[in-house]
Design brief:
With 187 residues, this protein is of the alpha/beta class. It is built from four helices and ten strands. The chain is globular, with a radius of gyration of 15 Å. The structure holds zinc ion.
Amino acid sequence: MLDKYFDNKGWCSFAKKIESPNYNNRPSGVRGEISLLVIHCISLPEGSYDNDNVETFFLNQLDYTQDECFQSLRTLKVSSHFYIKRNGEIIQFVSTDKRAWHAGISAYKGRENCNDFSIGIELQGTDHSAFSEDQYNSLADLTNTLLLRYPKIKGNIQGHQDIAPERKKDPGKLFDWSHYLTMIQSN
Ligand SMILES: [Zn+2]
């Protein structure tokens, strides 16, 4: 009952599935036990939303000639478990059972390599602009579903900027944590 929104392979029923090759297995045992949710933001080019560049980027199929700023992405292999577009559409790229490549060098509560034990959600946006209400609604629905399946996430929801403060600023100061957390069940 608790898992009614997930199949037994870690795919969410209300997300659109676009499978990325950018993942590997989580470490076995406690090391890979899911106990952290990481909120990110991304848009390609930054601040441009009316395109599917993030989707193609996570599939390693982005047309890198399209924009000068894409050159630096050429060698990167990146993915998140989920991506929420401005209109609230949720896309899942990697099974939550698997280790998506979203956090990079990172640490939380003294544990490094947050990708091992976290789920990553990207919001389409920038780290210096506000997010849409549709995105908050979808993020809250998704988070509440994840909390049922992975109760150790409770109280352990962080921004990428919090687990990699030297390198990252996302989701940024305009991400409304109090608004989001009031929509989360008993967090
Ligand atoms: Zn990030």
